[in-house]
Amino acid sequence: MKKQYWYIIVAYVIMQLTLGLGAKLLATTGLFERYGRLEIAYAGTTWTIIAFAIVLILTLFWLRSDMRSRGKANISSLVFWSIIGIFMALAAQAVAALIETNLFKIEAGSENTESLIKLIKLMPPFIFVTSVIGPILEEIIFRKIIFGSLHKHFNFLISAIISALIFAVVHMDFSHILVYTAMGLVFAYLYSKTKHIIVSIFAHVMMNTIVVVTQTLFADDLERIRQQSEQLQFIFGGFLS
């Protein structure tokens, strides 16, 4: 594995492990005192946006040689798979969620997604983390670096399953590990099929954006749907990954 890939992984891990510390340090500046009880929440959300942005900038810097060495792309093919990929990811998410609720009797809904939606409602700019920066970093790390490195030594299925499981575990939502694994498999397929990480990035960004929009703008409608049939919330609501 290239040394710059290790830099990216280490930077991402350090960022994740220090988000709480960064929030507390930012809160000590007094910039968020006016928010009272929500001081830590606002400081934490602000720090998360800053930290993710910094890691993204560093990641793009470390990948500059990779981006320069890309060959010519079939634009029409990339557009096709980018669009199809959105529906593939949403479908995989819905099917996996239905299996969880019907076969394994796992309660519908995701605490991880609900927490992120609350943060977006608290501070709307946080949507750039959940819908843009987060998906970009995850695709670079879990598909381009981890899946790509594994695929040099193993077949697609083994490489995709391992990288998808790691992707699922990192989300720390173990009751819904099947859903995150299913999405990881779809994104791995898109990357493997097109050989361009931009395809899985676009599908991931759009899928998360759809989830955010439906669960913020149509929250009341989703609640009514959930009360009628909890299974449908996965189709119209979904998970943030």
Q: What's the number of extended β-strand segments?
A: 0
Radius of gyration using CA atoms only? 18 Å
Which structural class best describes the helix and strand composition?
A: mainly alpha
| Percent of residues in helices | over 70%
Low-confidence stretches: none
Major sheet description: none
Order of helices and strands: HHHHHHHHHHHH
The amount of beta strand, in percent, is under 5%
Tally of contiguous helical segments: 12
Q: What is the 3D shape?
A: globular
- Kindly state the mean pLDDT as a whole number? 90
Distance between the termini: 25 Å
Task: Please outline the helices and strands.
Layout: H1 3-17, H2 19-27, H3 39-62, H4 64-68, H5 75-102, H6 111-122, H7 127-151, H8 156-170, H9 177-194, H10 197-217, H11 219-228, H12 233-236
Helix pairs in contact: 1-3, 2-3, 3-7, 5-9, 5-10, 7-8, 7-9, 7-10, 8-9, 9-10
Q: How would you describe this protein?
A:
The chain has 241 residues and is mainly α. 77% of the residues lie in helices and 0% in strands. It has helices at residues 3-17, 19-27, 39-62, 64-68, 75-102, 111-122, 127-151, 156-170, 177-194, 197-217, 219-228, 233-236. Helix 2 (19-27) packs across helix 3 (39-62). The longest helix is centred in the middle third of the chain and has 28 residues, at 75-102.
TL;DR?
With 241 residues, this protein is mainly alpha-helical. It has helices at residues 3-17, 19-27, 39-62, 64-68, 75-102, 111-122, 127-151, 156-170, 177-194, 197-217, 219-228, 233-236. Helix 1 packs antiparallel against helix 3 (39-62), helix 2 (19-27) crosses helix 3 (39-62) and helix 3 (39-62) runs parallel beside helix 7.
